[in-house]
Amino acid sequence: xxxxxxxxxxxxxxxxxxxxxxxxxxxxxxxxxxxxxxxxxxxxxxxxxxxxxxxxxxxxxxxxxxxxxxxxxxxxxxxxxxxxxxxxxxxxxxxxxxxxxxxxxxxxxxxxxxxxxxxxxxxxxxxxxxxxxxxxxxxxxxxxxxxxxxxxxxxxxxxxxxxxxxxxxxxxxxxxxxxxxxxxxxxxxxxxxxxxxxxxxxxxxxxxxxxxxxxxxxxxxxxxxxxxxxxxxxxxxxxxxxxxxxxxxxxxxxxxxxxxxxxxxxxxxxxxxxxxxxxxxxxxxxxxxxxxxxxxxxxxxxxxxxxxxxxxxxxxxxxxxxxxxxx
Length: 327
Ligand SMILES: Cc1cc2nc3c(=O)[nH]c(=O)nc-3n(C[C@H](O)[C@H](O)[C@H](O)COP(=O)(O)OP(=O)(O)OC[C@H]3O[C@@H](n4cnc5c(N)ncnc54)[C@H](O)[C@@H]3O)c2cc1C
Hints:
28% helix, 25% strand
């Protein structure tokens, strides 16, 4: 009797609300803890993770600089995803370099200088010629190392099987869980949750194409003004990034924008096979939300990863789990 009470007191019940990429990474990390019982609420609403390309890229932005916390988060993400792969026998991580064709000789020169800097040395190389005839790149390009992509749909599908006994396929009703530890991983839906709606969100819509390119053959993810990612089926081309239009639908403008950019460097004919869109849970200052609610204690948010969930989520989810002091 005494023993039962003792065990019951030691076990912490944690509710994960939302089972997209972030909720799944959280479930894997919590599953490593001994005295934690997790329940996952997943209502099958629109999920950004299901349309994402899954790319992780350490050199990003208009100015192409090393991304925030790259030195910490890139080794971390590779280690965590590889650990999940090994522990569960599921394979979703693709370490694939990115090839960025240079616009002109000035850009080539700029990167020649940059690639000699200590800060960038391990991360980039100058390539004089692409490995494929599909891409127009007379000035060569930049090869970005430590990049790649996570097959998120496969990851989510496998996570669903692994945690099937923990999942409740329903909307989370906070009234039934007062006093429990609730971790909200609701993606863009959190911007409508009364607990979190006043945070500085800046959601944005992304549209993305699956195309079939004739005789497409490269070992790189190609990235100029849009990327081309070879997936298991077709090539994925994306993405648009607009925060003024959040209407949940595909637009002709979005498709035209992607095609126009693609045609500036793709030499081969292609056919569009599928078009998708999603709403990215982005924030005004481009930093994620990872904290406990100020007044409603035991309610945590982990969200706001914008276009970088694949690279940022492992590190920040792990920080949150550490803060929960579960050992
Ligand atoms: C076109 C496009 C391309 C992208 N490409 C990349 C990329 O290459 N690399 C990258 O890192 N990121 C990319 N992103 C961004 C990435 O998709 C998101 O940052 C990430 O998927 C967010 O994951 P999440 O788990 O926070 O949210 P989501 O994937 O949206 O998951 C939230 C889940 O919570 C559930 N849910 C919500 N509220 C409740 C509730 N109250 N009760 C129960 N369930 C609930 C929903 O059903 C949903 O499944 C892209 C996004 C788009 C739109």
